[in-house]
Amino acid sequence: MTNLFLPLLIFGPLLAGCLVVLVPQRVRFFKEVLVLAVTVADLALCLRLFPEEMTLFYPWGSYGIDFSLRLYRFSAFILAAAGGFAFLIALYSCVFMFAKEKGRLFFALFLFSLSLVNGAVLSDNLIVLLFFWEGLLLTVFGLIAIGGKTAFKTAVKALVIVGVADLCMMIGIALVGHLSGTFAISKIQLSLGGLGSLAFVLMMIGAISKAGSMPFHTWIPDASIDAPLPFMAFLPAALEKLLGIYLLARICLDLFKLVPESGLSLALMIIGSVTILLAVMMALIQKNYKRLLSYHAISQVGYMILGIGTAVPIGIVGGLFHMINHAMYKSCLFLTSGAVERQSGTTDLERLGGLAGKMPVTFLCFFIAAAAISGVPPFNGFFSKELIYDGALERGLVFYLAAILGSFLTAASFLKLGHAAYLGPKSEATQKAKEAPVFMLIPMIVIAAGCVYFGLQRSFPIGQLVQPAIENHLEGQDFSFLLPNKNLVAVTAIMLLMALVNHILGAKMKGSGLKAVDYIHDAPVLSGIYEKAERRCFDPYEWGRAFMKGLSFLLWRLDRGIDWVYNAGLPGCAQALSNTLSRWHSGSYVTYLGWSLGGLLVLVIFLMSTRSF
Amino acid sequence: MLSLLILIPLACLLLISFLPLKGKRVAFAVVMALSFFQIYAVFSPTIMANRLLPGLASAFNFTLAVDSLSRIMLLCIGIVIFIALLAAGPFVKEEDKRFYFSGLMILELMGLNGVVMVRDIFSMYVFWEVAAAASFVLIALEKKRDPLEGAFKYMIFSSVATVFVLSAIAIILLISGSTSFTAIRVALLVTPHSNLIILAVGVFLAGLFMKAGVMPFHGYLPDAYASAPAPVSILLAGVVTKTLGVYTAMRIVIDIFGFSASLKSILLCIGLISAIFGALAAMGQKDFKRLLAYSSISQVGYIFLGFGCGTPLGIAAAIFHIFNHTVFKSLLFVNAAAVEDRLGTLDMGRMSGLASRMPITGTTSVLASLSLSGVPPLAGFWSKLFIILALWQSGLYGVAVTAVLASLLTLAYMLLLQRRVFFGTPEKDLSGVVEAGFNLTLPAVILAILIVGVGLLFPYIVHTVIFPVVSF
């Protein structure tokens, strides 16, 4: 197997994307066929290349910027996962209704994104990584912007937020290059101290914000409303998580060595915990299917960051396992929301209900995925969360409690979501709903089956995918067959039962599944915070916009001031002088003679004073 | 042979005066021929060579001399007499009036020629007075109220200036004993500087400044220019003030007093004040010709600025600016005459949008305005540039910068003029206006061609005309 397959993984989808744009619309089904073909080929190639280890090296520019790609267990794992998701979601998108020309753009940007992700994962040079990483900014912008009229603002918001984070990463990469003298990722080994910590923090910001952690998350809920749905299932749910957590793991394990006692590890765990809790609290009160899912996407990233931040092997394995699990169940959940939207015309939970009977397959996939995300055994989410709980507990009780509380709230919100959308009485919108088309069902079924499989046979994902990726850091432990700690399992079981009870009681009290958790919303302190959050008071993007408004007002005033000087100030002075002179010239020749004599006097006195002529 | 420039006009004057019937009909033609002769004479080496008149005419040999400065002045005089005469057509209609007008023009021509050609101080005074007297009468030719007032003011001021100049000449004669420039110069160098001499110099300069019309001696000038009939305004603005005031000052300073630091300061100061305040006053004017009058004050200020540097470049620039000013100011007054002829008024508030109705007048006025403002590649740009360069080279950086700013003011009021009179949409009660007649458009076109020609051919002109001027 020649290493030329590596650039093929990058440039193949890129060329296919260009083709999609260039071929005229009249050739029907061309773009769908092309996309499916390319994603199948990509997946097949990734799977074929999976056990290999290859590198490709082309010297490019000076300063250590070389086009260098490296395929090894970790990058092969991410590549295969990305390829799989690409194929399934492409299949789903074929029957998704796009507006007019937007379908073509969507598929083109879809393929470009796949190409960029492949490039970013494969690259072994920080600058090349940066290039592909930043390229995703443009595809994300484009994919959101094709969603509709209001989508443009959200696209700009996404671009600005992720752009700022990428800027931090750029500075971090520059620092890393400066500290270590090279940009080749596989050769860098830095210690955390002084400037190294700064570089770590900057790169970490870039990695976790691509994954969607707080505080760079505010674009995701808006995008979930405005962007076309397959985009949500593809990028924020799956690929960005894979990419972000991949880089985070590389930073913490390879580029720098994160040790359990360091302050940075503590910082990562705090960021993770805060993200878990705050995002899930926001998710709890949402009344829109897609927004609720997007807040959960943010919350689950917290688990991954927490896991990797623990810096102990069990936590790291848990974090990485959670990454692939989350990609699977979150994309499945978004796909179900897309099916619901297509069939019933809305994702507003107050107008949905009783879809379980109308769309049984969708409901089954939703149930499996929701159970997985809540951490219900025997699905995959349960096992990855147990590993994370173990690692968190090892580092501190407070982190464990945060994780458990997050799980509780996650379960509660999914009970609410499931009840409101699928159970309960049928509403007007759902009366006529039918099951979704086959092409939409297949991806959901495949991923849901995957969730079940990864749960029952967890030795496969852990042993074959996650562990070989980080084999140097496991300290000889093997978690493939590890049974979770019994105490932790007991706690989890109790927590899940409590969530169920809470939901049933709440539903009875308030009369509908949707309002089951309203008591949290209306709680004394929380209601104030919730209200502010809904008014976007906590959104750093909004702070930035307000600042820019103020700044632009100041500059406008300055510009008006300068204009005034030229338009009113100077001409006014000249006018005043002119009028004064006009008044002095009264027409009386006596006055004029007086001036002349005065002038004569001055002249003579001046000449006299200089004693010469 | 130079005396021909005085004798021939005198002969023509006598001829047409003593042959009244014939004279009245050909009066204008005679003066036209005289102006052509003048222009020809400037470029004719035989006349300029100043050979003595042969035989019988040797009784009429005066001590006349021309150098480059005088030649340029002669050229200016010739051009302006021609232009003024052409423009006089629509304004001076009756044969009687034409006869008087022509006679006075010939007198004026004689006087001006004499002033620029003589080399002793008393003859200069005589010709000075001849030209001034002719101009008083010319202004008042119409016997209306405004021209009479303007002529009266002009006469008063001229008399005061004459008193100053005469007294100064008297004092100087006390010292030098002879009237020729060279003799006086030598005498002044030899005599220690006494207060009396200094007083004489100051008074002389004051008299000359009054005639030149620089601030603060300028009071009569706007009234005189504005209220005079159109052809007389052209004559006054184009050549009379220039010759009687500016040329005389230059000649006196160069040939007699010499450039001392205090004289230079005086010239620079007066020049700067005139340039700035003349421009400022011009901005507020509502009468076409008054605006042009203040503009003249401002431009003469520039001439003095260039002259006050004392360097050859400065003097050359000043002389060139005299020529340029003659051309573009005459052109602007011709345009004013055209407007007055067709509209009957010079109130700018009642004018607008004339360019579409009077295209030739409008276009030529734009050319003149741009040249006045010093916009390349027209002629005015070069002279202004040289003046500012001369200032800069003399180390007078502040003055140079102020002069440039005054140029901006100049541009401002010229744009105002153009905007008010020519641009914009035509007013309703101007709908009957058509382009002025041949008499007023031909001079405009000729002068415009001169402006553009001198501007574009400037490199050639610099070498053949300007630099030789500097050689003294």
What can you tell me about this protein's structure?
The complex is a heterodimer of chains A (613) and B (472). By secondary structure, chain A is mainly α. Chain A is built from 23 helices and two strands. In chain A, strand 1 and strand 2 form a beta hairpin. The longest helix of chain A is centred in the last third of the chain and has 45 residues, at 540-584. The model of chain A has no long low-confidence stretch (mean pLDDT 86). Chain B is an all-alpha fold and 472 residues long. In chain B, helix 2 packs parallel to helix 5 (95-117), helix 4 (68-88) runs antiparallel to helix 5 and helix 6 (121-139) runs antiparallel to helix 11 (230-257). The mean pLDDT of chain B is 87. Classes of the chains: A mainly alpha (613), B mainly alpha (472).
SSE layout and pairing:
The complex is a heterodimer of chains A (613) and B (472).
Chain A: H1 5-22, H2 30-49, E1 54-59, E2 66-71, H3 73-94, H4 102-122, H5 126-145, H6 151-180, H7 195-211, H8 219-226, H9 229-255, H10 263-284, H11 289-309, H12 313-344, H13 355-358, H14 360-374, H15 380-395, H16 397-421, H17 438-456, H18 459-469, H19 486-510, H20 518-521, H21 524-534, H22 540-584, H23 589-610
Antiparallel strand pairs in A: 1-2
Chain B: H1 4-18, H2 20-43, H3 45-48, H4 68-88, H5 95-117, H6 121-139, H7 145-176, H8 181-190, H9 195-212, H10 220-227, H11 230-257, H12 261-283, H13 288-308, H14 312-343, H15 354-357, H16 359-373, H17 379-393, H18 397-421, H19 438-456, H20 458-470
Helix pairs in contact in B: 1-2, 1-5, 2-4, 2-5, 4-5, 4-11, 4-14, 4-19, 5-6, 6-7, 6-11, 7-8, 7-9, 7-10, 8-11, 9-11, 10-11, 10-13, 11-13, 11-14, 12-13, 12-18, 13-14, 13-17, 13-18, 14-16, 14-17, 14-19, 14-20, 16-18, 16-19, 17-18, 17-19
